[in-house]
Amino acid sequence: MAMAGGSDDGSPMMEMNMTPLIDVLLVLLIMFIITIPVATHAINIDLPAPDPNSNPPEVDPITNKIVLTPDNQILWNGESITQGGLVSNLQNSLNFAVEPELQFEPEANASYELAAQVLTIIKASGVTKFGFVGNEKYRQFGSGA
Questions:
Q1: Model's pTM, two decimal places?
Q2: What is the pLDDT of residue 126?
Q3: Backbone dihedral region of 10: left (phi > 0), alpha (psi from -120 to 50 degrees) or beta?
Q4: How far apart are the first and last CA of the chain?
Q5: Which of 47, 53, 74, 96 sits 20 to 30 Å CA-CA off 139?
Q6: Sheet holding 101-106, edge to edge
Q7: CA-wise closest residue to 142 among 105, 108, 114
Q8: Residues contacting 96, CB < 8 A, separation 6+
Q9: Which helix (H) or strand (E) holds 131?
Q10: What is the pLDDT of residues 48-78, one digit of tens each?
Q11: Which of 68, 83, 95, 93 lies closest to 121 in space, CA to CA?
Q12: Could you tell me which of 28, 25, 27, 2 has the C-alpha nearest to residue 15?
């Protein structure tokens, strides 16, 4: 900060020292910020009470599993299919009353390019029940090969 010393002729300095004023304003600003209450956006909703006597219907856990092999094959529930067959199988699975779960498991040395293509197909199909399985095999680096 620059400091004005006035003139050497002994006349009084006519400029106001702004430093104490700025310090007081900053302290007041900090106090104001601290005292502002935290904004909470809560919406109270009355939820219905659960009925302990009603049992939800049993859903048959149908799962479809896609496995990618190191030799660039796509396996749908153990059977080899093409990418076009994968698209049609995904569209057919969306027509069921309860959408089956789709599991994706690339093998250890499967192609990243094929995995990216298959994931793009799955995303474009509109499947909502999707999961990666078999990842626990690769918990330690280099253990899957």
A1: 0.55
A2: 86
A3: left
A4: 65
A5: 74
A6: 79-81, 74-76, 63-68, 101-106, 130-132
A7: 108
A8: 62
A9: strand 130-132
A10: 777 777 665 554 568 889 999 999 899 998 8
A11: 83
A12: 2
